[in-house]
Amino acid sequence: MRDDLPIDQIIEAECVDAMQALPDACVDLVFADPPYNLQLGGELHRPDNSRVNAVDAEWDQIGNHDDYDLFTCAWLEEAHRLLKPDGGIWVIGTYHNIFRLGTFLQDMGFWIMNDVIWRKSNPMPNFKGTRFTNAHETLIWAAKTKDAKPTFNYAAMKALNDGVQMRSDWTLPICSGGERLKLADGKKAHPTQKPESLLHRVLLATTNPGDLVLDPFFGSGTTGAAAKRLGRHFIGIERDRDYAAIARERIASISPATREVLTVTQSKRAEPRIPFGNLVERGMVKPGDTLYCPRGERTARVRADGTLISGRSTGSIHKVGAEIQKAPSCNGWTFWHVRVRGGFQPLDTLRAQIRETMTV
Amino acid sequence: MRDDLPIDQIIEAECVDAMQALPDACVDLVFADPPYNLQLGGELHRPDNSRVNAVDAEWDQIGNHDDYDLFTCAWLEEAHRLLKPDGGIWVIGTYHNIFRLGTFLQDMGFWIMNDVIWRKSNPMPNFKGTRFTNAHETLIWAAKTKDAKPTFNYAAMKALNDGVQMRSDWTLPICSGGERLKLADGKKAHPTQKPESLLHRVLLATTNPGDLVLDPFFGSGTTGAAAKRLGRHFIGIERDRDYAAIARERIASISPATREVLTVTQSKRAEPRIPFGNLVERGMVKPGDTLYCPRGERTARVRADGTLISGRSTGSIHKVGAEIQKAPSCNGWTFWHVRVRGGFQPLDTLRAQIRETMTV
DNA sequence: TAACCCACTGAATCACAAC
DNA sequence: GGTTGTGATTCAGTGGGTT
């Protein structure tokens, strides 16, 4: 990681100013919880003229030029510049601002991966009875570009959800009780403190240990707290000195998890590749041996170079498997079986034996 | 109600053309399920190699964001004109289009009342393990203007929800089984037929009996079906003759206002499943914490994704529990314990605490 | 009848490394 | 940058048929 960055620090400044001082393509992830009740006026910082013009062009399509859109465009443009090519961004909001955030993300070339619903298990009721209880907030997860491959720890998310795919709706409680930061007078320290559980899931899903996360609206520092706990690094930007001080104190008291427990469930795609030919070379399967389908109704014979032959079809275990099933594709490792005493065993178990010897 | 309107009829025309032929301020509610403008890649296959029947209809291919925005603007402008002063509008979409819909609604002076999440109890999974399961769609409910007082049947919603306020997230199944309209060849009649339970809730919440509902993208006629059942009137606009014919036949076979519908509407209320990972995210158990056997003679450590590690064994609380006991299975909730002052407490009691907060 | 197994399906921006 | 080969990847539910 670059050593000229303010790693694990909180910058006290307007977010666009601070972002402009950082170099291109330096962060792995941006997490942004922007305010939507801005007290806009003369105090709002505007970027330099060239950038305003570039921004203007973007949302002539939208036809609305109010200060909130100008501000949103300015920090999103900077976020785009600061992200590495395969970086990702999360934004969170409510119906007051999330539609504008989503539209701008799309217009700027970000590529939406998911919108995610934070379904609050204990929302504030609607006292007037004039609407539905506002029981959720919306997050958008987007890649820097359409072709980017942002980090997604699919297997870890599946493990976290008891073995079934993590869905786009997350039921989590709001931040309350002991987690909620309080001032000396007992009042809450920040009006919109997010629960660490939310950031835990975001960071575990879309970053790796050691990654750098930028939060341009740092607030009470939940992003930094979760990042430190999970062995990620952060840069926080916060214009309010009191909030920054609270966040610093909060993060200082956190001790990170060890490397061992940060090693999460890995996808099979990450495992080393074993050519089928290795099994032949090692004598686990011999040239001339017969391989069987799961139900044994079709067979193929192994050739010395690790290809199969079955009727007119020859080629890799995958190609032959696909052709005899007339399927678009086939995983030969799980499709083909060898005969063992009294039954069949998939090639995959033989591959696992080789992998076992590799890791030791 | 005006007698020059095509009440309870389906107009076969392009939606903007048909809307322009209607007079100002004549409808109480607009419900719109516009094309989502999906941008799909090639073919998609399930892990069992079957092909996913994608939404590749010509009507969904609007083009780029600019074309989609022009189209959206045109019909939303007409919708605004057709609404009575205290009228309301619902739109539904996914992340592909919902942010643009929301932004335009706001820019045109509509006033958002709620965004509502349709949380699908049985969504299609993500077959390639590349993203979170797309398990919801988003609806926006808006008033014609900031000062409008659109109909909201608060008490009816509360009653429908077992006596507690209706939240902004609705768990309902997708349209399948006998409800799904089929052609003579057994194929689905419309690729995106919405469940009647969804429209039931929308109409019950934001219209009164006798009200007039306009649906400019009528499709298979779910809005008309729900309206007729609930004693509301509708005007449908659909440019596809086949869809219009299907909808006419469907609605003709419906008899209004039976109790039966209410039972259809109730979603199944099951005891919520709590993944062990939730305890980690919520900080009830921390990455690196040690878990103990009932008698404490064996231990495991918790990883950040909610899996355990004990010696060479890693995986879910159930899997690791079974492996270290050399048992075929294990209920990790009762097997593993956390240390509390002076003793041990099973994970099950922590899970019970979460259930407590969710069900109230 | 009940239990069980198998086939099929749903608004989806759905792989990736090596050559 | 395009092409090719390897091989990873699914949940809840309906409905039909068999045991």
TrEMBL record, chains A, B:
Domain DNA methylase N-4/N-6: 27-248
Catalytic reaction(s) noted: a 2'-deoxyadenosine in DNA + S-adenosyl-L-methionine = an N(6)-methyl-2'-deoxyadenosine in DNA + S-adenosyl-L-homocysteine + H(+)
InterPro entries (UniProt xref): DNA_methylase_N4/N6, DNA_methylase_N6_adenine_CS, RAMA, RM_Methyltransferase, SAM-dependent_MTases_sf
Limits of the RAMA domain: 261-357
Entry keywords, A to Z: DNA replication, DNA-binding, Methyltransferase, S-adenosyl-L-methionine, Transferase
Top enzyme category: transferase
Protein name in UniProt: Methyltransferase
Organism: Hyphobacterium vulgare
